[in-house]
Recover the amino acids of this structure.
């Protein structure tokens, strides 16, 4: 499963980055694209391996509890 | 700004689909129990006010998206930071709707299929819609959103024999406070989420119609939500409604002989699809404007991939999803839906009065077009 995810993501990234280079997109576009896809790839691999990193929902809940908005 | 335009009726239907969205499976005002219809009425009135604020911001800043307004009114650095936060908010919202959709389909229809597969396939269709542009999303809504009230009406007709109007009684059994709290939850979900439309409003072909369109869409969506809730309440009773997970699905199971569950699925596909498309469009468009590129499509695939992964990542299970939507989401949304838009409205009004004062002074000094 992990290998399938990695291959799928790499195929999409390779296809899109080739398109960006051909269209002469700005470096910022490629960087933001790679950051989003990179986070997606890492989280997908972790989830597929049975490891669930703490999610943004938990971070938000903790932050709201810290400022006392939510009990 | 790309030269795509949508008509008033298309915006009305996109907004209706967006507001109805995942309400097919989540009833945000359910915290008020059998008095949820009262909460929905209050939330509808407050939601209209909120939509009026969003429309006024768009009218005071013609042809500008939320990102452009933020950068113009709040300065380049603060505006860019807030724009990035809004982009995150739109991505998060899309992920939550993805998860609602996935949980519903995997619990009721495709019980053996992994939730990631269901969401991934749905994402492929939506990516195509988003990449086709706002015009196509408008035409898609013209074709499909009309199905939502039709399906709700068909299910109600089929259930006409199953009714107990005493389910509404006693009214306000637990006082007004749960009703007000549920109205607040209902205000932030779904009305406040329509802040994403500040990225879509500039595409309306006749801006003078904007307020009329958004208010009528909000009123229709409120009326439809109250109608669906009243139908579910008189068919199921307040006790069962309080314990059920997916209420409209349970109601549809009451219909003898016919399996109308696919009709509820269609409602969710249409409403959820419109909502996710708008959020993905808003996020991708925002990213393209922050980076100064001309084409939002460069980001749409990355954004939708991230949304699907986030949707799987964000909750452990359905119970956590429901709890988060009711307890955390409303408070987390306040800055995005109420505080920043109010600030933008004030700054836009101040900007307009400043401009008109300068024009008057110029005209008085002989620089105006009337004196030249």
């Amino acid at each position: 499963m992990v290998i399938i995810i990695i291959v799928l993501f790499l195929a999409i990234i390779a296809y899109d980055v080739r398109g960006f280079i051909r269209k002469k997109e700005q470096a910022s576009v490629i960087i933001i694209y790679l950051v989003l896809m990179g986070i997606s790839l890492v989280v997908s691999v972790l989830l597929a391996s049975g490891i669930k990193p703490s999610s943004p929902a938990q971070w938000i809940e903790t932050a709201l509890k810290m400022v006392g908005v939510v009990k | 700004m790309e030269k795509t335009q949508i008509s008033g009726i298309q915006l009305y239907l996109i907004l209706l689909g967006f507001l109805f969205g995942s309400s097919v499976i989540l009833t945000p005002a359910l915290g008020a129990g059998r008095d949820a219809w009262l909460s929905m009425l209050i939330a509808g009135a407050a939601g209209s006010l909120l939509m009026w604020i969003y429309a006024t911001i768009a009218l005071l800043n013609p042809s500008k998206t939320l990102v452009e307004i933020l950068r113009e009114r709040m300065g380049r650095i603060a505006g860019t930071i807030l724009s990035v936060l809004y982009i995150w908010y739109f991505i998060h919202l899309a992920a939550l709707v993805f998860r609602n959709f996935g949980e519903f389909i995997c619990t009721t229809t495709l019980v053996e299929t992994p939730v990631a597969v269901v969401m991934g396939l749905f994402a492929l269709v939506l990516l195509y819609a988003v990449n086709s542009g706002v015009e196509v999303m408008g035409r898609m809504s013209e074709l499909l959103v009309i199905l939502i009230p039709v399906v709700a009406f068909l299910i109600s007709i089929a259930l006409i024999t199953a009714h107990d109007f005493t389910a509404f009684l006693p009214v306000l059994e637990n006082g007004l406070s749960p009703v007000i709290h549920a109205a607040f939850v209902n205000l932030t979900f779904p009305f406040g989420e329509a802040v994403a439309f500040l990225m879509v409003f500039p595409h309306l072909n006749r801006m003078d119609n904007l307020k009329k369109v958004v208010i009528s869409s909000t009123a229709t969506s409120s009326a439809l939500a109250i109608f669906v809730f009243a139908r579910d309440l008189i068919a199921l009773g307040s006790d069962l409604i309080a314990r059920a997970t997916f209420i409209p699905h349970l109601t549809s199971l009451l219909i003898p002989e016919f399996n109308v569950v696919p009709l509820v699925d269609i409602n969710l596909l249409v409403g959820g699809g419109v909502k996710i498309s708008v959020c993905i469009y808003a996020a991708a468009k925002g990213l393209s404007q922050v980076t100064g590129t001309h084409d939002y499509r460069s980001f749409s695939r990355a954004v939708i991939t991230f949304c699907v992964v986030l949707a799987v990542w964000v909750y452990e299970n359905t119970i956590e999803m429901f709890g988060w939507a009711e307890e955390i989401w409303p408070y987390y949304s306040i800055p995005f839906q109420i505080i920043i838009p109010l600030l933008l409205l004030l700054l836009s009004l101040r900007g307009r009065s400043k401009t008109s004062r300068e024009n008057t002074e110029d005209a008085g000094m002989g620089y105006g077009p009337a004196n030249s």
